[in-house]
Amino acid sequence: MSETRYTGDHEWVRVEGDSATVGITAYAQEQLGDVVFVELPAVGAELKKGAEAATVESVKAASEVYAAVSGEVTAVNEALAGEPALVNSDPEGEGWFFKLKLGEAGELGELMDAAAYKDYCAGLE
Amino acid sequence: MTDPAAVSQTAPLETPLAGLHRALGGKLVDFAGYLLPVQYPAGIMAEHKQCRQSAALFDVSHMGQVELRGEGADAALERLVPGEIQKLSAGRQRYTYFTNQAGGILDDLMVARLPDRLFLVLNAACKADDLAHLRANLPGIEVRELKERALIALQGPKAVEALARHAPDVADLRFMSVAELEVAGVPAVVSRSGYTGEDGFEISLPADRAEAVARKLLAEPEVAPAGLGARDSLRLEAGLCLYGHDLRPDITPVEADLAWAIGKRRREEGGFPGAETILKQLAEGAPRRRVGLRPEGRAPVREGAELSDAEGRPVGFVTSGGFGPSLGAPIAMGYVTEALATPGTRLSATVRGKPLPVVVSALPFVPQRYAKKWEPGESV
Fold this sequence. Notes:
CATH class of chain A: Mainly Beta
Shape of chain B: globular
Order of helices and strands of chain B: EHEEHEEHEEEHEEHEEEHEHHHEEEEEE
Distance between the termini of chain B: 25 Å
Largest sheet of chain A: 6 strands, antiparallel
Number of helices of chain A: 4
CATH topology of the largest domain in chain B: Gyrase A, domain 2
Structural class of chain A: alpha+beta
Oligomer: heterodimer
Largest sheet of chain B: 6 strands, mixed
Strand content of chain A: 35-45%
Strand order of the largest sheet of chain A: 1-2-3-9-8-5
Distance between the termini of chain A: 32 Å
């Protein structure tokens, strides 16, 4: 069973064992608009929670994506290089950004669950 | 167009179409002190393509609309701009710019001659300064800001079909012509011009009738609304400058590759601010020039990125950059030293600390498709 957690910066983290898949939420892609380029971290990079992990570029602007949790990058979504619009069409599925081997599992507890994140977004309207 | 960095300290003003933007689901942002849609639910990419393929309606009511009246208004205006205004015929419009004593550009603008007055369209972020500049330097000329008017741009290859159903005479206007006529029964000043690289119109009309007219145009099958995001990507693809970015008080018209807008007589006579510097650069060349840039990868190169040559020496900077939806690729404009301004020259742009290869490219990136070709320096 996987469990998905969310950050206040509108990233999602899907956890399976000690592996986590990271992307941006439907709310985030909606705010960004058409995504035209995603710069992903290098496989093997050690990410510290809160550090710059990726950059997502829309037609209009570049936005940084910060690491929601610490860990080592084990894979990146190569499909985004050819089809960055996957982030718009399927942000929480085919539009994933990278996978991590979790460094500190305790950090997950600081993230929101789906219900809390839904309330958080509703509060931003 | 205006400078998005020029955000006002107070609550943004609403244009006469603010209610329509909300009803259409526009994502409203503060742009140069006005609440305007950056996009509608369709998104920038779709709105951009709508304009290239059919017709898009933009609210540009934030732009300054000014009338000059009085004997000799044209000659008086020529003291502030290098354009040929005295020979501008009634019913014709021309692009020009205010210059400063150093030869830099203070703002770019459109000037139209109507039978009894000159009609100016100014950038929103500059209009307060422009008005003060006009009032201080045009004694005896009435300078009136038309605050009670809206401005709608209808742009795209099918704009003429859609607009002609509400104003049949617009089909006879040629590019850079202007006429006072009724649009859907509302008195308007219509010019066949715009800032997208496509055929199209700008329609100045009373604020209180603007929404009704906009709704009628949007009801036409060819037309959909488009926001500031698409306006920016369209003008960038068309190689058109954005004031506050590609044009600044420390950049001259020769550097900006806009010398075509300096009238023949004006080149001989001078008589505009900074003429000495500008005419010298016309004769001898300028140290740097505005160019198009095509990044080789898919990563956009944006405003502020530094440009360097093969040896890593700084040679220029990017003033506008983003993604060209019609090209499906990133595009940018910037300034480089004259020796490197030849299309095909390979440079690198620094993006997030890393050098990305870019190639100097001819402008515009997409062919301009005006109703009649805009002849540089065309005499009327």
